Amino acid sequence: MLSPSRKDAGVWIHKDAWFHLAHMDAGVSLGYALKQAGNGMCAFVLEGDVTIAGQALHRRNGFGL
Fold this sequence. Notes:
It comes from Hymenobacter lapidarius. This is Quercetin 2,3-dioxygenase C-terminal cupin domain-containing protein. By secondary structure, the chain is mostly beta strands. Helix content is about 0%, strand content about 25%. It has a domain at about 25-65. It has no helices and six strands.
């Protein structure tokens, strides 16, 4: 994980941003809570197909909220 806090596990960055990587099997559902009020989120699909907020995404698609 990358994080703007030195206290988090992983690598510290100088931005108000968090980066996460997930490997998910078919049929798995994952929730995500924003870490800071006012921030949005972006997702990038490396392989496979996912649905985020009702939007179907495929290999190499990105999506921002």
